[in-house]
Design brief:
- A six-stranded mixed β-sheet has the order 5-7-10-9-11-15.
- Helix content is about 25%, strand content about 25%.
- It is an alpha/beta fold and about 270 residues long.
Length: about 270
Amino acid sequence: MFTNSHILPLTTSDNPIQVVQTFSQMPSSATNLYGDFNLGLHVLDSPTIVHQHRMDLLSELQQHYPSVNQIHWLSQVHGNLVHHATQPHACPISADAHITDRPNVALAIMTADCVPIMLADGAGNLGAIHAGWQGLAKSIIAETINYMNRQGAYQAPTRVYQAWIGACIAQANYEVDDNVKTQVLASLARLSITVDDALSQSLFTPTTHGHYLANLAKVAELQLQACGVQQIYQSGLDSYSDPRFYSYRQQSQQKSVATGRMATLIFCTN
């Protein structure tokens, strides 16, 4: 179905809520920094090329999901602001999550190791979250779900949330320091999540003194559960080791001066 496409579906074809992951042919030389499908405008790639890729992505989506007529993009800043996408904007909004109840709009989150989280609340609202360690530490997930809970006629307890976590860096490849560990664990405490020594060590496995292998996808899952989300689908896709995906950490270790961005998108086909 998706031959010669840059789209990898993360949901079944019969699901009215669709989540898809983009992928790219990775850079093959020092002069080819961005691969063949970079979607990030902020990484110093040619804006003309990036806009063409974004138009190509919309065209590819429409071949398989004809009802989609717009992709909503953000200017992501590693914060915790949430934007309500109600109408097209000439310039991207600075935020790290957006929600919509418009059926023909796909919400996009760009990543190159951070955790992309797609949400549906059963009341017609969709959400998309960019959650690196900073976003997780700043409670971007709780901010987004609280925002979604205030939308529409349904009250929060009646909603049945689903969440999908797209390609992100796996724990085995993501080393962080004490500062990151402290801030992320504090975000769990604010959500009344009890973090004993066993959980702490599973989320942040010690390596050398003061450094740890961090499981960002699991932290995101715990925060989602604390916010009432019980149906959580982990893609298990590792942006670092899978050559289809952009990885800022891997390309930085290879002394690349730039890294492209892939996208995870959510939309409704009804």
